[in-house]
Structures
1.
Amino acid sequence: MKRTLISILLILWAVLGVVAQPKWNSRYQSYVNQYKDLAIEEMLKYRIPASITLAQGLLESGAGMSELTRKGNNHFGIKCHGWTGRKTYHDDDERGECFRAYDNAYESYEDHCKFLTSSPRYSSLFSLSTTDYKGWARGLKRCGYATSPTYAEQLIGIIEVYKLNEYDRATKYDKFLARHNGLDNPANAVSGSLHQIYQLNKNYYVVVRQGDTFKSLGKELNVSWRRLARYNERNKRDQLQPGEYIFLKKKQSRAEKQFKNHPHRVRAGESMYDIAQHYGIRVKSLYKLNHLAPDFQIQPGDLLRVR
């Protein structure tokens, strides 16, 4: 009797669309940070809310870690349906089903938007505002995007936990991040997951992980590894240390405005290179700002201008 009651409750839970509110986790947040600019770009082109695109990407791809995403860059679980491009096969509702495969995330995001805009099944969604994420989520379920009875509520839960609806009001995005993150391929990453790209001093950087080299980072980030080394004032064969910053463009000659009249106090073990990387400026500029000779040896406690 107890087992029967539990079964009935589970069925009612599914039918009524009741789902537990998801909890925040860093892997999902990293995915959002990685692809938010790409989602905004697609929203401005196709009028599909960025929040919906990101929530579907998170849910369908397991934050980019699903087998389908790692093998075929398919972030949205779109099956072949007459697809003439590259294909991959995966067990879903049935064994060995055919799914679309892409060269990178950008192609997957672009095809997701075209899939929705070109299918009469989803045409009713485009009468909704791009800020009506609940209407879009429920409309996707009603139109048959997924078979799960709780699909809409799962999307809404993700959007609200990660505040994805804030991106639905965006009128601009970072084109550099959209392009680089969109062209990234998880198969290129040494650890199996992509590096998050951060911004500093009108530049972009990644944080080195164990095993990274200029060559592996260049391959993942679609930047010449020789150029990457040059941007960071290094030899292309230098061994990289976990935790250090690697910039993706040529560094600035001065730190950000907030550091005007705020000199850096040298800590034990720091080098001029360490300090320059911390602020995203060139080493020779740091020497020049402080009127120092190239062979000058800094000491703990010294004050250095960075702007």
2.
Amino acid sequence: MPAQTNITPRSKDYAQWYQDVIACAELAEPANVVKGCMVIRPHGYAIWEKIEDDLDRRFKATGHKNAYFPLLIPLSFLAKEAQHVQGFAMECAVVTHSGLRAVDGKLEVRNQLEEPYVVRPTSETIIGHFFSKWIDSYRDLPLLINQWANIMRWEMRTRLFLRTTEFLWQEGHTAHATHEDSQAEVLRMLDVYRDFAHEVMAVPVIRGVKTANERFAGAIETRCIEAYMQDGKALQAGTSHDLGQNFGKAFDITFQNKTGQREHVWQTSWGVSTRLVGALIMAHSDDEGLVLPPKLAPIHVALVPIWRKPEEQARVLEVAERVAKELREDGLEVVLDDRDDVRPGEKYYHWERRGVPIRIELGPRDIDAGVAMIKLRVVPEGTDPKAAKKTIPLADIGVSIGKELDAFQAFLFERAKKRMHDSIVKVDSWSEFEKVFADQGSRFVLAHWDGTTETELAIKEATKATVRCLPYPEDVPGFDPRETGRCVKTGKPSAQRVLFAKNY
């Protein structure tokens, strides 16, 4: 299938722009033969691998170990925790039969299972079963486990990376002797996600506490990180759940404490998924295509050698290969685009679409001058486009490119942070609230809410805006959680402002 070349402008159709960027960068495509699923192509999967590698290092640094649990979960396991099964019942895919046989040239299912299996929508239940076998004493705690896996949730409306029937993720599961210890784990892992989003994804996030209505099914509290997308919508980029003793009691996970008494453990779970790739796309990319922060870019540098005369080709390629080798030795991923049947302009276009942070152009005159021409994928708005190009010495080029990449990473974060902060508004009247969210509009809105699920659902029904979280004050400039007021919808007393937005 030929690669797509046209990208719809964001201002014209943001949803189509998103799909076009993915197609042009060859990140993924719908798996039309399997409803609601996607095929992650090599360039897209390479981004996920970098996400996985960095997070895995962070998890292990905090004492967690990787394990793997079955994809199929006995149906009876889900039934043991009432809130959990209620929260996931409509999204479950269920296996009821095994085996096939050919009858008159047609395939028929052979055997009905004694008990149906649910294809993993999340793993709290089956992991709870095994925790009950592994934990006996306070000496076995804390138990800190992480799993990298695929998940299946039967989605009605799907969108590549953001919401698909099958997706990839990690899910942390831990057990502790006290509630204080499990609460500390919830906070610690939320901060791990925040640090990763800021330092690696270059995406600023707001930490906060979910409302009871938005809480993970079976948790007593859910904390989240919310990211701002360029269309004003929020994307929940990660969650960390305080499960209390709900699953401990459901699966009889007990331990003998230091005084010889048996107690139920306190548990947490936390996770992020391939929707982080969607967050990257929507936080950074533009109408020219994909933009990636260097720390997650599968290719850091596209090196394009240029020659006009046949006798120049060998000399230019020799120097280009030497430069590519030097950059690779400095730990950079480099593609040397030496195709001789493609014009330089087409090569530039190709790598820009794929989000390569820096392009190096190298021709005979550059070599004679001992320099190379580089072009950054994006420059600050209002900057002369010519500023995206500059010459750097060939000597110690790895050091120069490394500095450019570091500056580019920092620029993307600061640009995204400014967009988010500029979007945040305080709203005190219902008419103003409706105006902000009219039609396709959205921003991050701080408004008072009376704390009831009834009002929360009424606001969502009227505007499609939801309470994203009760935000951490340090993550929102000028936000004071002690500020009381009146609910923007009902006028009833409100203990504090909360963060509203439309969301993905």
3.
Amino acid sequence: MNTDEFFMKRAIELAKKGRGKTCPNPMVGAVIVKNGQIIGEGHHKKAGLPHAEVEAINSVKDKTLLNGATLYVNLEPCNHYGRTPPCSLAIIQSGIKRVVIAMRDVNEQAKGGIERLKEAGIEVEVGVLENEAKRLNEVFIENITYKKPFFTMKAAMFLNGCISVKGGISKWITSEKSRRLVHRLRGLHNAVLVGINTVIMDDPLLTCRIKGYRQPKRVVLDKNLKIPITANIFSKYPENIYIITSKAADNAKKRVLEAMDVNIIECKVRNGEFDPDELSKKLLENDICSCLVEGGSRTHGYFLKHKLYNKAYLFYAPKISGSYGAFNVAGFEAPKSPSDAITLKETVCKKIGEDLLIEGCFDVHRDS
């Protein structure tokens, strides 16, 4: 590992401190180095607050030390006036003479910082630990490039792929250790999403029950607004519940739910299901940048069929059940050939207590 990689690694570690807090902005960390020593550090804490580069510059008490220093940052400094002034201008005014950047910004509105720094006579190097930087901000890249949230599939099932026993009962298939990990996943995503049948059959809270993690927004796909007013989900934080429904759903019930501080979002319905592009758009408009989809069968089928998923966490209990009268994890039409099945890539298998966890990534993007 060379010197630039060493300090960039530190910038990436700082950026991780903003995980789950910066949406819709990316996670960014910055390190300022003079004569081989770190003299300033910062990270972007929350959307609307100063960016990492400004935080790092402000952390240096003796500003004369900035003259001739090197700044390491995992994302191209912004070059526009948004909630905060451009970071490129702050860097130029600081006296920093070299900037090392992991990756270019994918946001057309914000990019251009590299060129502005070069025009000001600052030495710029781009691409140090670029792959690591892209993995760190995979949610932001997905939001900006493909105009959709980063969707993660979470399912708990028997070894034969059933997510319930007869009658649709699904509590509890996997162990307490697996469920605790699921709560951490909830806390790391902006939102948790389920279909209406999961609410009716399991009556979940969908909250994160681990101290120190924020509460995710809770999204229910409910085309016909069948959700019971007495559902358990309404007992806590109704203001962070988002019911996705159709324009044709019962207006009186919409008003009742809105009076309970629940958010009602109307979405286009095509061929009996929500339009996937509009659903993505509506979620992003409500600052849902990353979404943990917890089912059930039809909901997973919908997301798989429309190639919406980016990543999967599949929990398997070391048990086999009968399948007649139960639900399979993926409720949509089977392919005609095994070669047409959806493939997970970059898979990793872990043991969680007695359970098995398979993590993997999808080839998500649909042909345009």
